[in-house]
Amino acid sequence: MSPDLAMVVAAVALPFVAAGLTPLLFRLLDERTGYAGALVAMTSFALLASQYSVATTSPGTVALAWIPSIDVALRFYVDGWGLLFALLASGIGTLIFLYSPAYMHGESHLARFYAALLAFMGSIIGVALAADLIAIFLFWELTSLASFVLIGHYTDDDSSQYAARMAMLVTVGGGLFLLVGFILLSIVAVDVPAVESAYNLAAMLENPDAMQSALRDRGLFVPVLGLLAIGAGSKSAQVPLHFWLPNAMAAPTPVSAFLHSATMVKVGVYFVGRVRPILVGEEWLILFATLGLTTMTVCAILAVAATDIKELLAYSTASHLGLMIAGFGFTSIYGAETGVFHLLNHALFKAALFLVAGIVAHEAGTRRIDALGGLRHDLPVTAAITTIVALSMAGIPPFNGFYSKELLFEAAVEASHYHDIGALGWLYPAVAVFGSIFTVLYSLRFLGLFFGSRPDGLGDVHEPSIMLILPPAVLAALAAVVSVDPQLAVRVIVQSGVDATATDPEAMHVGLPTSYSTPVGMSAIAIGVGFAAYPFYDRIHDAIRSVPAASPPVSANWWYDAVVGNLTGVGSWLGSRVHNGLLRTYATWTLAATSAFALVGFAATVAVAPADLVGVDATPAIALVLAVAVVAALAVVTSDSHVAGILTLSILGFMIAIFYILASAPDLALTQLVVETLLLVIFLLVIEEIPEYYEVDLGRVARDAVLSVAVGATVFVTVLLTTDASPEGSTDVARYYAENAVPEGGGTNIVNVILVDFRGFDTLGELVVVALAAISILTLIVMRSGGGDETGTDDTRADDVTADDTRADETGIDDTGGADR
Amino acid sequence: MTTTVIMRTTARVIVPIILVVSISLFVEGHNLPGGGFIGGVLTTTAFAIVYLAFGLDFLERGVLGRDVDPGKEPSRDRVVVAYRRVFEYGLAIAVVSGLVPLLFGRAFLTQTFWEFEGVPIYHHVEVASALAFDFGVYCVVVGGLLTILSVVGAE
């Protein structure tokens, strides 16, 4: 009994297919496209649910061949953990799609909105189920791209653009770290016999101990851990990369609800849980517990400082993500239970809260916290929903958030029993309690929108349409069910999720505490202090806000702005230096970079020993010709008019041609001769247009001299090294060509037979180069708006000559000539 | 561009010679030094000398007997269009000559040759199918270089 491939692939592919069809659907259904999206999401949900019994009893892998040559496949691993996440994404996705049409009524660009939302949901389901490192990375970055489109939905709004760019930079950048981590992981996996494919994560998860010991043997354990942590941390908005999440509230509210509750930000947490069995250990504990608890506390404090209800919820999301990361960070079984259970609980209450925030903003017309209050009279149903989910967020018993928070306290207390971590052993629980106090505070503040007195400025508010109420009501009902019978949720799915993420799974039990224990005391402190401090909320709020105002560098967002702003500045400065429209600048940069890379490459790979220069054997004729060439080269540099320079340059070229003849390479010599002639003629054609020699300052002369020396040195060293490697006598290849030229190619000119027959494909490639050069010249000339092109002909000729690599050194000399002028 | 009588007279004499030599280099390339690339560059040289001696509009005005609109974009020039066609066709010829063997079940760019006996004057002639490919090379080089030359020259 293994998962059904067709079902799983359909569940992942369906949203993408629907996203592609959205423009058509939109023509038919207009604003009701959202309901079609809900249908798609529900279908995905049903397809995934059909795999439920398999996932919870016998998890397995199904694969679709993708790139067999490098062993990459679209592998899907269906187990409780992946299924929980995929079901959350599709289930909450359904509610979001039901909510959207009413909320987004009358907005523009809805087709794009729904297409992106569908693609987004598909990518999340893909990440949840993929078991191939490359496929995971692909879906991972697809979520970043889709979220970029969604966050930047209001394209003409500056803050929306800014937020979208920021989310993209942070999450895609983090994804690149993740990719490097994946590659290191695959390098190690090749050596583990039990893992048959380098990218097969499912196989790695089946042999976690072998993987971990292999990683440690290679000394890659800490690098891989760090890289994956950066990737997951950037996606899950961990400190110090948490700043993109509050900014992402620029997105329409349904997107925020989806993004913050079930999907994108959870991907990092989900992945941390996924690789936990492989990497768990003391480093893991210290890294993730510290990271998670720091994020939890810092973001909870920032949530208290928020002035906008969506901002408050966004910071609270980051804080709860920290809680989950910290949970997975603790190596005990309680840690895994915290992470899995809280992922579920948080999805339920946070999606509902965002939808409620949407209702409030929609009906009251403002999102400012201090402009709202006493809404329970106007929005009685919404108030009831909010009471359940806000208290769940605060972790007040008997609501479901309490159980997972209790598990975190338990894991924090137990941490020092498993590893010797010194002072951290009591610091972790203390920080967890401290952060929880703020969690209680901001949850109460959100609830306070519905209680207390109504501000005078608030206009007429009335209960919204049923389609806006239904989705949060469903979520609140689910949260209530879990609150009443948490063991039900455990039995249904959480237990199998824990089995997948824990190293030593055991049966999980949650419930209301019946006797005193340390975690119960911690909860009591957090809730008690939270309630006690609530009357002073405004003072705390102002105090926190005064800190970044007094010293901006405290806030991570300030750093982001500084870094990105400076990068932009440096970029434009560099651009104006390198890309100034003057051909000589381009020539300088191109030649300098090429020479530098080539020389560094030689230096890194082979030692250029001057001893190789011993034993130069040249006939007197060759020596004479080359001596003339050297004299001509000197004359080029010292010539005082263009004509003289060109003529002396041609002398140099012709000497090279004669050298080829003497070295018995008639074809090469002929080519050199005709190219040299053509060059001479072209130079004479354009000579009229070139201004007379003018005085140049010393700096430019020095630059040109340095560049010429560099290019010359590169060519010299290249020739030296390439000819040094020539074997004694003739090689097999040479013999093959010599023997087969006449019988196979029917020609006695071996060079040409090679060109058009044996290596015809290379020649075809060169033809394309020549054609491209011609097209680019046409384009350049047609689009040109001033700027000197005195080296234009020279450069393009160089291009064409380079097309025939046998004349590379000729090109070098040519370019030196060009750079000298 | 001002040119002397000497220049023009010399050009009249040597341009045909260069053209003939370049064609012979191209045709004989399979057995003697030469080939499409060399022939192409040499042909281009002949055209360059024509330009040098008679100016850029000579081909259109003198050879084709058309009037030239002096204020035209160089890239829109009829001659330039012709050059562009030459290298486009050359590329096509090269690719098609490579595709033909596929019809005979051979690999892409497979070449063969035929020998003819008893041909008048030459007696023994050997024609390689590679000549078609080489002709493509020749066309691309001529068309490409002349495009560059005339466009840059027009500037």
Automatic annotation (TrEMBL), chain A:
<dbReference type="InterPro" id="IPR050616">
    <property type="entry name" value="CPA3_Na-H_Antiporter_A"/>
</dbReference>
<feature type="transmembrane region" description="Helical">
    <location>
        <begin position="137"/>
        <end position="155"/>
    </location>
</feature>
<dbReference type="Pfam" id="PF20501">
    <property type="entry name" value="MbhE"/>
</dbReference>
<feature type="transmembrane region" description="Helical">
    <location>
        <begin position="74"/>
        <end position="99"/>
    </location>
</feature>
<feature type="transmembrane region" description="Helical">
    <location>
        <begin position="423"/>
        <end position="444"/>
    </location>
</feature>
<keyword id="KW-1133">Transmembrane helix</keyword>
<keyword id="KW-0812">Transmembrane</keyword>
<feature type="transmembrane region" description="Helical">
    <location>
        <begin position="249"/>
        <end position="272"/>
    </location>
</feature>
<dbReference type="GO" id="GO:0005886">
    <property type="term" value="C:plasma membrane"/>
</dbReference>
<feature type="transmembrane region" description="Helical">
    <location>
        <begin position="33"/>
        <end position="54"/>
    </location>
</feature>
<feature type="compositionally biased region" description="Basic and acidic residues">
    <location>
        <begin position="794"/>
        <end position="810"/>
    </location>
</feature>
<feature type="transmembrane region" description="Helical">
    <location>
        <begin position="6"/>
        <end position="26"/>
    </location>
</feature>
<dbReference type="InterPro" id="IPR001750">
    <property type="entry name" value="ND/Mrp_TM"/>
</dbReference>
<feature type="transmembrane region" description="Helical">
    <location>
        <begin position="621"/>
        <end position="637"/>
    </location>
</feature>
<keyword id="KW-0472">Membrane</keyword>
<feature type="transmembrane region" description="Helical">
    <location>
        <begin position="465"/>
        <end position="484"/>
    </location>
</feature>
<dbReference type="InterPro" id="IPR046806">
    <property type="entry name" value="MrpA_C/MbhE"/>
</dbReference>
<keyword id="KW-0406">Ion transport</keyword>
<keyword id="KW-0050">Antiport</keyword>
<feature type="transmembrane region" description="Helical">
    <location>
        <begin position="111"/>
        <end position="131"/>
    </location>
</feature>
<feature type="transmembrane region" description="Helical">
    <location>
        <begin position="644"/>
        <end position="663"/>
    </location>
</feature>
<keyword id="KW-1003">Cell membrane</keyword>
From TrEMBL, chain B:
<keyword id="KW-0812">Transmembrane</keyword>
<feature type="transmembrane region" description="Helical">
    <location>
        <begin position="36"/>
        <end position="56"/>
    </location>
</feature>
<feature type="domain" description="Na+/H+ antiporter MnhB subunit-related protein">
    <location>
        <begin position="6"/>
        <end position="147"/>
    </location>
</feature>
<keyword id="KW-1133">Transmembrane helix</keyword>
<feature type="transmembrane region" description="Helical">
    <location>
        <begin position="86"/>
        <end position="109"/>
    </location>
</feature>
<feature type="transmembrane region" description="Helical">
    <location>
        <begin position="12"/>
        <end position="30"/>
    </location>
</feature>
<dbReference type="GO" id="GO:0005886">
    <property type="term" value="C:plasma membrane"/>
</dbReference>
<feature type="transmembrane region" description="Helical">
    <location>
        <begin position="129"/>
        <end position="152"/>
    </location>
</feature>
<dbReference type="InterPro" id="IPR050622">
    <property type="entry name" value="CPA3_antiporter_subunitB"/>
</dbReference>
<keyword id="KW-0472">Membrane</keyword>
<keyword id="KW-1003">Cell membrane</keyword>
<protein>
    <submittedName>
        <fullName>MnhB domain-containing protein</fullName>
    </submittedName>
</protein>
<dbReference type="Pfam" id="PF04039">
    <property type="entry name" value="MnhB"/>
</dbReference>
<dbReference type="InterPro" id="IPR007182">
    <property type="entry name" value="MnhB"/>
</dbReference>
